[in-house]
């Protein structure tokens, strides 16, 4: 209830001394009842001296709440007592309107009036307490607001004090000369040693004055240098204009001299253009370009090196990052706008994009052409993978004649296997950079071999030609960059040319072998007798899986003499009813590594080198004695000489066998045509497989 409502309900009693006798009598009776329990009421006089006005608020200030409480308890007790007496009177037979009951009713009414007055006083005390509490809260709020204002002012003053304490003068950022140099170089009127040595403030001012004098002197020198620079620039501009006027004439002279350059094999203009493009090559390709060109000029005039690719993209890559920041920001903004219109890419698409970015090539590549005397050319295409920091190579062979005749020679000039094992154990399937393994794990690449067909082979010798060497290489060298490339260039180029010549020679030989012709050159005719009856009837190529399924080659597989990168062939040599199977393993490094033959003879049963000593001796004749079968260097006739030696050994084996296994008489199936000093020797009854030229007989080793 609001204070206004309470004020409206406050009774203002106006009483006078006059009254009827009944009123005076009832008032006297009431005073007798409450004489012991209630204080006299408080009155105040109005302007009219005859009227007294009753005010409970004035009375409230003089009353004690504890006494009112005790009065309340006593009144309640009296009221309960009167009620009990009325109840007893009624129960004893007194009538309702009797004097005793009416007297007690009046006393109860007086008590009720007292309770009402006490109730009003209690409400007035409650309102007064609330008003005092509200006033006290307002005073506290005012004090709290004043406290906050004071705290804010204190904080502001503390910040100002901190700024003043942290203030750094501008002279602290100036690098002044040391005090020793100052006293040595500064004149006495500036240094004033008698003052500055004892006063740090004066010393700082003096050093600043000396710094100002020095800077004025340097500013004068700077102005003089600028004037001299302008004069030099004007002279340079004049000379540049003169040189630019010569440019059209020089270009006409160069165009006119092009036929002369071609005739003299001195392509100056092409070399100049290539040198301009070479500036944008990555370091490994640039090292390879310089060293290959130097080797071609010094040792191999037929070697040529060319740069191919997108020059503009390479220029964009070689630009400095600060020059391309604005372009990148513009392109990024455009990409963001486009991406908002597209669907969100799946995780697989994002991973594939990361793989493509990691396997990205440099836009420029090198093409090295190695020419042979027969007109064939080996094209080597070198690429640089920027994020992997490795070089890869792809190959292509161009020949003067058509080489599509031999079926078994299909993989000899295959770009995927042509350069396998150019150096021992260098298959070019995995990256030689060990850091790439961790890069592959981030984008989910299990092996680099899955991308070799598209990116090229990362052979170790390719890295060395580009001046790259990694910790995974077997033999570490102290050479780096151009020195490392130069140390491997000559040997590698000779191996590449030798590999091409060997594969072309094998291609021609396979074409003859497929037609059952063993091509033996005139330089090697003395290695064999004039008449060889056994002949080659079939020459086919096998896969590695087919080779491993042959029973008579298992000992070769167990010995670890065969790799999946080797080439496998089956040769069939026949004479009469005898049929000799020869499984041939051709190493990629042929003729440096000798082909390996495993034999199985089908004649009166099946025999192999594991079951018969003479067949083992035939394998030894073919596989061991390289010096006798190599022929003229570089030994490109080695394979055909081995096959021819195999035919000769089969003739000796069949002609020196007994006439008939069961001992019955009859004509020999294989008449003896070879002259042998002894047909057999030793407990194992080995046959004479060694041919002696020029005597023309066979003997034991």
Automatic annotation (TrEMBL):
<comment type="similarity">
    <text>Belongs to the THOC5 family.</text>
</comment>
<feature type="region of interest" description="Disordered">
    <location>
        <begin position="1"/>
        <end position="41"/>
    </location>
</feature>
<dbReference type="GO" id="GO:0000445">
    <property type="term" value="C:THO complex part of transcription export complex"/>
</dbReference>
<keyword id="KW-0539">Nucleus</keyword>
<dbReference type="GO" id="GO:0003729">
    <property type="term" value="F:mRNA binding"/>
</dbReference>
<dbReference type="Pfam" id="PF09766">
    <property type="entry name" value="FmiP_Thoc5"/>
</dbReference>
<feature type="compositionally biased region" description="Basic and acidic residues">
    <location>
        <begin position="314"/>
        <end position="323"/>
    </location>
</feature>
<protein>
    <submittedName>
        <fullName>THO complex 5</fullName>
    </submittedName>
</protein>
<feature type="compositionally biased region" description="Basic and acidic residues">
    <location>
        <begin position="22"/>
        <end position="34"/>
    </location>
</feature>
<feature type="compositionally biased region" description="Acidic residues">
    <location>
        <begin position="324"/>
        <end position="337"/>
    </location>
</feature>
<dbReference type="GO" id="GO:0006406">
    <property type="term" value="P:mRNA export from nucleus"/>
</dbReference>
<feature type="region of interest" description="Disordered">
    <location>
        <begin position="314"/>
        <end position="348"/>
    </location>
</feature>
<dbReference type="InterPro" id="IPR019163">
    <property type="entry name" value="THO_Thoc5"/>
</dbReference>
